[in-house]
Amino acid sequence: MGALKELNLGYFERWENSVHFILSTICKSIFKFKVKAFLSFYFCQKKTKIMKQITLMMTLFLMSLIGISQQFLPRVFGVSESKTAYIFKTDGTKITCQVKNLSWKKGNIDAIKVVDLEGNVIKLLPTEISHMYLPPSGLNKLGSTLDFMDDPSKWGSTDLDKTLLGEKLAYYEQSACLIKKKTLTLMMQVVNPTFCTKIRVYGDLFAEESVTGEEKSYYVKKNGDAAAHLIERSNYEAEFKILFADCPSVLEKFGADVKWKDFDKHVWEYDQACK
C-alpha cells in the first residue's frame, strides 16, 4: 500500500507539474500576444496621430501660401539703383535700365531718371510711360512679402508679365485717378499684381496706417471704369456692396460680416469666383 501511495503521489506531482507548465506556457503566450497587440495598437495610434499632425501642418502651410498670395503688397517708397528696371513707354519702346532718381510731388511720381544699357541718361515724365517694373530698395519691406511670386501656380489671374513679376519687381502703370472730383493721369503702383485682371487696386501714398500697420485707403479701378477712385476703411461697408454687386459668391460669403481687413480676400474671391 505504501508503495502504491508513493506511486500515486509521484504521478499526481508529475501531472501537476505538467499542467502548471502548460498553463504557464499558455499564460506567457497570451501575455506576449497582448503585449504585442498593445504595442501594435499604441504605435499604430501614435503613427496615425503623427500623420494627422503632419497633414495638419501641411494644410496650414498650404493655406498660409494661399493667404500670402492673396495679400496686397505694401507701397514702395524707394527703388534700388543697382538692380535692373524695365520701363515701357507709351510709344511702345522698352527701356532696360537702372533707376538713378525717382522724383515725387504731392505723393505722386513726378519724374524718373534712368541710365540704359548703353550708359545714356534718360529723364522721363509719367505721361511718357505706359507701365514699368521697378526693383524695390532694401529699405522696403516688399521683398519679404514677395516670396510666393517665385511660383506662378499660387497666383490668381493676371495680365502682367509673369517673368518680370517673378523677379519680385514692383509694378506701376499709368492710370486716370479721381482725386477730389478732379481726374488726373498718374503713375500708380498696383498692389495686387498677381490677381488684378478684373479689379486693379492701387497703393495710396497718402494712406494712413492703423496701429497694426493696416493701410486705411486704396484707389480701386474695376474693368470698365474710366478712372480709379478712393476707397477708405470708414466707408468700406457701403463700397463693398457696390464694388462686388455683380458677384453673388462674394456677397454671400462675406456680406454678413464685411471687414476692411479682408478687402484683399474679397478681391481675391472676386478674381477666383466671378469670371
Describe the structure.
Helices cover 36% and strands 25% of the residues. It is built from five helices and ten strands, in the order αβββββαβββββααα. The protein has helices at residues 2-69, 162-165, 236-243, 248-254, 263-273, and strands at residues 85-89, 94-105, 108-116, 121-124, 129-134, 170-179, 182-189, 199-203, 217-222, 229-232. The strands form two sheets. Strands 4-3-2-1-5-6-7 form a seven-stranded antiparallel β-sheet, with no helix packed on it. A three-stranded antiparallel β-sheet has the order 8-9-10, with helices on one face. It starts with a helix and ends with a helix.
Tag the structure with descriptive keywords:
275 residues; alpha+beta; 7-stranded antiparallel β-sheet; 3-stranded antiparallel β-sheet; 36% helix; 25% strand; disordered N terminus
Question: What's the short version?
Answer:
The chain has helices at residues 2-69, 162-165, 236-243, 248-254, 263-273, and strands at 85-89, 94-105, 108-116, 121-124, 129-134, 170-179, 182-189, 199-203, 217-222, 229-232.
